[in-house]
From TrEMBL:
GO molecular-function terms, A-Z: oxidoreductase activity
Keyword Oxidoreductase listed: yes
Family according to the record: Belongs to the short-chain dehydrogenases/reductases (SDR) family.
Pfam families: adh_short (PF00106)
Record protein name field: Oxidoreductase, short chain dehydrogenase/reductase family
Stored Gene3D superfamilies: NAD(P)-binding Rossmann-like Domain (3.40.50.720)
Length: 248
């Protein structure tokens, strides 16, 4: 069953809110009437520009998704949150036979997959209390298709996508919508790191897509041109396997 969620007049929390897709999500949420957005970052000074621009509508909040204690401390402050966007992530260039592949995968799993688990476990009681609510997870087309030079990143995002599916089943009965976002190359530092800036699309396509997909009650969002190519091939599988009730 689809769960529609309108960002207007809601309190949001966005990890990695100081730049890239996270910053664009903050801007889009506020443009669509969000009451307040917690800017969840590792360096509070990095939010000065957003605070100067939006004033009391934003609230800097210290969160390091690799640290469970940091997340739990933040959850004791942000008790009014109604939507959590888990955007913070890390990418390492690592093919499977690279010497540093194991170290890269360990770091990426810690942030991209375990970070999601930590955020969900800490904030689910708050979202349930303040519901109807939503949890948004930034995954990637790399969660569906492994790219050799990004093998460990792809593996970490595949793990995060699997966890996101589990959260959809677990949080639905708690009146918490879950949205899994699968961008292709987006114009961020991460795209530059992966050498994909020439085909990258603006961060706004992801941010606007999140607002639209939450309102539509969708589980998957493929926001850009490359992602929509994936969606065209993947949609039948998603409808008949990922989102289907196979218990019937």
């Amino acid at each position: 069953m689809k769960m529609s969620f309108d960002i207007a007049n809601k309190v949001a929390l966005v990890t990695g809110a100081n730049r890239g897709i996270g910053k664009s999500i903050v801007e889009s949420f506020l443009a669509h009437g969000a009451k307040k957005v917690y800017l969840a970052v590792r360096d509070l000074d990095s939010t000065k520009e957003l605070v100067k621009q939006y004033g009391h509508k934003v609230s800097p909040l210290l969160i390091d998704v690799s640290n469970a204690q940091s997340i739990m401390a933040a959850a004791k402050i942000a008790t009014d949150v109604q939507v959590v966007v888990n955007n913070a992530g890390v990418l390492k260039i690592a093919a499977p036979l690279d010497e540093h592949a194991e170290a890269s995968l360990t770091e990426e799993l810690n942030i991209n997959a375990f970070g999601l688990l930590r955020m969900a476990q800490a904030f689910t009681p708050i979202l349930e209390k303040n519901g109807p609510a939503a949890l948004v997870q930034l995954n990637s087309v790399a969660s569906i298709k492994n790219f050799a030079a990004l093998t460990t990143y792809s593996a970490s995002k595949a793990a995060a996508y699997s966890i996101t599916q589990g959260l959809k089943e677990s949080l639905g009965p708690k009146n918490i919508a879950v949205l899994s976002v699968h961008p292709g190359p987006i114009n961020t530092d991460m795209a530059a790191q992966g050498g994909m800036t020439e085909i990258a699309e603006p961060t706004s396509v992801v941010a606007q897509g999140i607002v639209t997909s939450l309102k539509a009650g969708d589980f998957h969002l493929f926001p850009d041109a490359m992602a929509r190519d994936f969606q065209g091939a993947y949609q039948s599988y998603a409808d008949n396997i990922i989102e289907a009730d196979l218990s019937e």
